[in-house]
Amino acid sequence: MNPVVKPVAIPLNGLTCHGKFHNFRPPFSGLQPLYYGLLPVLPHLSSELDNLRSRGLYRSLRLVEGAQGPRVRIDGKERLLFCSNNYLGLANHPVLKDGADAALRFYGLSAAASRLISGNMEPHRILEHRMARFLGTESALCFPTGYMANLGVVSALVGAEDAIFSDRLNHRSIIDACRLSRAKTFVYRHRDVDHLETLLGSRREYRRRLIVSDGLFSMDGDLAPLPDLVDAANRHNAILMVDDAHGTGVLGASGRGVPEHFGITHGVDVLTTSGSKALGAYGGFVAGNAKLVDLLINRAQAFIYTSALPPDACAAATAALGFIETRPDLREALWRNVHAVQNALNDLGFDLMGSQSQIVPILVGDAARTMAISDHLFEEGIYLSGIRPPTVPEGESRLRLTLMADHSEDDINRLIQAMADVRTAFF
Ligand SMILES: Cc1ncc(COP(=O)(O)O)c(C=O)c1O
Asked: Whole-model pTM?
């Protein structure tokens, strides 16, 4: 029998489709659905899922009805959004949408091939040129996502004869990149350059040595000690890679990220970032010197064996870079919000885990209690996600609060009042 509940007209007009997607099911045309083929392994899947549920670690998707912004509709109700990476509020900005729209009309939807075959198009060239200029590097290369940029560059730079020195709280994409590279990985204590140097000093036998760190830590909101990492890399003749996915657009006087924040112009050999955080667009990037980019084009499997970023995504990211350069007021508004919220939460007695940025973790500890608080806030109209293991270490579950430039004073006051109530009810 055809399981269609109610087909929804597909031209996705954001206004008319509100709420209707709850009923949407893929329209099977009388063919046997392919997923019936999974039946023999279903008992295994069910027990894995039950196990996650029993440990309070089960996750499910929430559906945002409409575009991203400081307020979103979820489950038919408007909620204040305090867990998005849309830090500068650009994800639904007309300047980016016009750029993407023009590229879509001229270049079409898809690059329809990998970059090394026939998928290398003008929007890629323009974006890479623009990104290198923005980040202050000789060259840059785009990947489909930031996750893939990390996979691609680490596994192209080091292999089984090499060693990686990785901060304990680096993003999952870096951990996966280390594994994929097959290099021996040494994990140093979070932001502890003395520990890093001890490891570097006692592991000299490797062909190449790569130090890798988040620039702004995605779950902790603190910054890598970049000047000390540069010194350590110089002293030990190691390559230094920094993933600035959350710093780009936000940190530094002109938004160029963690290196600009620390006034560092030399010494970071490899910089990676993402187009889908402050830039409000999409894509992943590796920036460095021209030889690095040349090597990646030849050796990075996450670049070679995948389709090129769609032209409209390139155009949106390009538009974002230009926009960010001319709008320092966006960063100023974001930092005003950061300081207001951090001061208020500190006054309420929350542990913000040393956050130095728009990413403000609020330590809870227990995973179930974290989710109970997140659910309570959701009911109150505030969407603030809970983060549990394995994303963060056991016993360090937290609410991950993120701020945007376009949260209004009212939004911030509502959040602070709700957190004051949480403090009384849950701590
Ligand atoms: C530090 C860090 N690096 C890389 C990524 C991956 O970027 P993307 O979302 O573009 O794949 C993220 C995203 O969550 C991140 O937080």
From this structure: 0.92
